[in-house]
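Action item from last meeting closed. Structure (200 res):
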């Protein structure tokens, strides 16, 4: 039986790095952000419905994320309209991924995991975390990031403390070596659970 592990964490907590560590260990990872990028690319499945709802948002047959950001900034209700278009397409991609992987463990890398209710269909949730000062330092090092953008992103995310309370597993991402060791330990633990399920 496949164990479906959700991976999440607030911005700057090391989620993408941790997801890559799972891949490096041979664990299949489905990436929600990458899926949305594919949907927005030239002739992606989201292009036509978004063009119908927001004609200005499609440039050269692909969705312009910059235009979407401007639309959302001027009208917050745009987010709900976008989600109605994108979420069913993302869910379909996720189902196909699961159908194509019969591994003992698969990871679902979802930035807004709790916010979208994904914890309801997952077997377990891993939250990656780091102290607030390290988080802020990592985020502010990103090209083009401003203090206001950082605050806006945080305001849309479930607070780190609440994420940790709701998590089944927590990994602190202070150093790469410690994070990698924690990932390997968790993989061994969850694969053991999967094997035990298969024997019953």
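Sequence:
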């Amino acid at each position: 039986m496949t164990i479906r592990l959700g991976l999440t964490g607030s911005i700057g907590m090391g989620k993408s790095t941790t997801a890559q560590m799972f891949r490096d260990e041979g664990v299949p990872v489905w990436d929600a952000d990458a899926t949305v990028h594919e949907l927005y690319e030239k002739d992606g499945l989201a292009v036509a419905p978004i063009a119908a709802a927001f004609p200005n948002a499609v440039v050269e047959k692909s969705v312009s994320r910059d235009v979407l950001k401007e639309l959302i900034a001027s009208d917050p209700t745009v987010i709900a309209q976008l989600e109605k278009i994108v979420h069913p397409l993302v869910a379909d991609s996720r189902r196909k991924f699961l159908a194509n992987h019969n591994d003992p463990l698969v990871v679902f890398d979802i930035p807004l995991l709790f916010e979208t209710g994904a914890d309801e269909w997952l077997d377990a949730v891993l939250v990656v975390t780091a102290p607030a000062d390290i988080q802020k330092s990592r985020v502010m090092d990103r090209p083009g990031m401003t203090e206001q953008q950082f605050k806006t992103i945080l305001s849309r995310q479930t607070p780190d403390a609440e994420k940790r309370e709701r998590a089944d597993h927590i990994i602190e991402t202070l150093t790469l070596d410690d994070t990698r060791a924690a990932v390997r330990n968790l993989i061994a633990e969850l694969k053991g659970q999967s094997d035990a399920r298969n024997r019953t």
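Note appended to the action item: The chain has a mean pLDDT of 92.
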